[in-house]
Design goal:
Layout lengths: L1 H19 L8 E6 L7 H15 L3 E6 L4 H9 L5 E5 H9 L12 E17 L14 E3 L6 H12 L9 E3 L3 H9 L5 E6 L4 H9 L2 E3 L4 H10 L4 E5 L11 E13 L4 H13 L1 H7 L8 H4 L9 H9 L6
Parallel strand pairs: 1-2, 1-3, 5-6, 5-7
Antiparallel strand pairs: 3-10, 4-7, 4-8, 4-10, 9-10
Helix pairs in contact: 2-9, 6-7, 9-12
């Protein structure tokens, strides 16, 4: 009889837990967040966001992973090897629509969660180059980013807005910006394209040894660019960002965004966003770019359809129309 009473008590206790949980067991979610290299912005910022979600969303744990960044992250989501990812919004656009670097390789199992911060198109030249406009790049030797990279696509699109193509350049050099800096120093190049948040270490390095300037993208051409490629946003690089750059420089930017797999439940994405925006102070302490995470910025520059959980969250905050 004593043994029977013990068994009955155990069954009752389990039943009470079951009822307390709404009549069903609570599912635990373990998500993998693809970020970027450990020396860049994506990894430390992603680590901070993952920690906030893990700390404040019940039954959800997120682990940030160092990866090869945007293109690699899209492929990790496609293959089910990651659940969330940091990417540039132009790369997400290419993947979702199967164009540019994803030509013929459309990835449609991805959805937008939030926009993070701008990554600016920086066109760098030496102060005495005589280049004052994108139009002046005609007949010049220009670094346009590694073949198949997001930078290469940005360079091609911006030149196109000014009626130019790579064929109009004396040299379209497909090199990394690190190599481009060395070539600018050695007068082997006249200008170089770079897509990155400012200030950028490689530009600082160049400015320390050579007088530089940044080439602006004026309002007229920026507007035309945005009409054709909706992932661009207009912005400035502030005066004083780099040695010798003493005035604001108009440019365009793509946005770093956080995307997720479509099959993550709506309520989970909603809860993750709720935690992020309730604890932006913690994220900002972890990385300077975290200070740019706010409800207004979060809905600007999303280049793929919103995840239903994100759409519901931002609609309730009055940032997206229903």
């Amino acid at each position: 009889m004593k043994k029977l009473m013990t068994v009955l008590a155990l069954i009752l206790a389990v039943s009470m837990v079951f009822v307390a949980c709404g009549g069903q067991a609570q599912q635990t979610y373990n998500f993998s967040m693809a970020t970027g290299g450990t020396t860049g912005t994506y990894y430390p910022l992603g680590t901070a966001i993952a920690q906030v979600i893990s700390d404040y969303v019940d039954n959800v744990k997120v682990e940030a992973r160092s990866t090869g960044a945007s293109v690699a992250n899209i492929n990790l989501l496609k293959d089910g090897q990651a659940d969330m990812a940091f990417v540039q919004n132009d790369i997400a656009y290419y993947a979702y629509n199967g164009v540019e670097v994803f030509e013929g390789k459309k990835v449609d199992n991805i959805a937008g969660m939030m926009a993070l911060y701008p990554e600016h198109i920086q066109i760098v030249t030496l102060a005495d180059s005589g280049i004052n406009s994108v139009a002046d790049l005609k007949g010049k030797r220009v670094a346009v980013g590694a073949a198949g990279s997001g930078v290469e696509a940005n360079a091609k699109q911006i030149l196109e807005a000014y009626g130019l193509s790579f064929d109009d350049l004396a040299l379209a050099d497909h090199v990394s910006f690190k190599d481009a800096v060395q070539k600018l120093k050695n007068n082997q190049l006249d200008a170089a394209f770079l897509t990155a948040g400012y200030p950028t270490a490689a530009v600082n390095e160049l400015a320390a040894s050579k007088a530089i300037k940044l080439i602006p993208i004026d309002d007229e051409h920026a507007k035309a660019l945005k009409e054709k490629y909706p992932f661009y946003v207009q912005d400035i690089i502030p005066a004083g960002t780099y040695k010798g750059v003493d005035e604001d420089v108009k440019t365009v930017a793509v946005k770093a965004i956080l995307i997720v797999r479509k099959d993550i439940p709506e309520d989970i994405v909603y809860k993750m966003l709720d935690a992020i925006f309730a604890h932006t102070d913690e994220i900002a302490k972890a990385h300077a770019k975290g200070a740019m995470i706010n409800l207004d910025n979060a809905v600007k520059g999303m280049s793929i359809p919103w995840h239903p959980g994100a759409k519901k969250f931002f609609e309730e905050k009055g940032k997206l129309s229903k």
